[in-house]
Design a protein that fits this description.
mainly alpha, DUF6221 family protein, single chain, 3 helices
Length: 85
């Protein structure tokens, strides 16, 4: 799961940089307003998961959720098929 979390963090960071570049070049405030909050929430979910103990009742559901979210990057070279829920 550590590799999946690293993957999600890296994809979020790359997406944040990409959206910031679009906004800088084209004034894409609408893009920033709609996508950055979602990226922030995914990052918060990943951070909360990292702090969870496996006995936490949210653990299995959060694991599944992170796997589903990672699927949006399934064409990325670093995505692993074993992460698919």
């Amino acid at each position: 799961m550590d590799d999946l979390l690293k993957f999600i963090h890296a994809r979020n960071e790359a997406d944040n940089h990409a959206y910031a570049e679009v906004a800088y070049r084209f004034g894409g405030e609408a893009i920033l307003g709609s996508h950055l909050p979602m990226l922030d929430l995914i990052s918060m979910l990943a951070q909360a998961y990292e702090a969870m103990e496996p006995a936490d009742p949210r653990f299995d559901g959060t694991t599944y959720t992170l796997r589903v979210l990672a699927q949006s990057y399934d064409e990325h070279a670093d995505y692993r098929e074993e992460w698919r829920p």
